Amino acid sequence: MIAKLKGIIDSKGADWLIIDVHGVGYLVEASARTLAALPPPGEAAEVFTIMLVSETAMRLLGFATPQERDWYALLADVQGVGPKVALALLSALSPAELSTAIAMGDATMLTRAQGVGPKLARRICSELKDRLPETLSVPAETAAALAAQAPSGLVDEEASAEAKDAISALVNLGYPKTQAASAVASAIQEAGEGADAARLIRLALKGLASA
Description:
alpha+beta; 3 domains; 5-stranded mixed β-barrel
């Protein structure tokens, strides 16, 4: 099993790359997002991989980050999602966008990917909502931006700054204030009082998705 390749990018195509590792060129299939994230030919790179073995062929799939590789494994495990569709989803959406879409049950967001219709998108949300990886995160700057867009006086003054930011972000995403506050309260119970806004948002979204 080849889990990672480290070498020089030899060439790139629309959905593949060749990476030279000590004189051996490995052909690796990849999403458009991965190809864009990797350096141009002639430069050093590290590619995280999954090997697919069948009776007739061996294929290497490459990812720019371990998070993308983990998401591929999750997506490919859903009925109706093969390697091509899983890579299409990773081309259309970042791991953070996938996390948010599935946590919120936003099937429409998943249909951005080629080959993903409404029925398959709903199945992905349903099957993966309770299997979101711990790498699910909302960047701190995103949480702050969402909170800043929310109306003033949205949350109780007694709430911590982190809780206020989390509740404000959820309201800005479309959740009613009472529902957002309840979800964040549950998240605080799970994560503890010292959790930052990004973690509270992540846990609250998971709770809302499974409610």
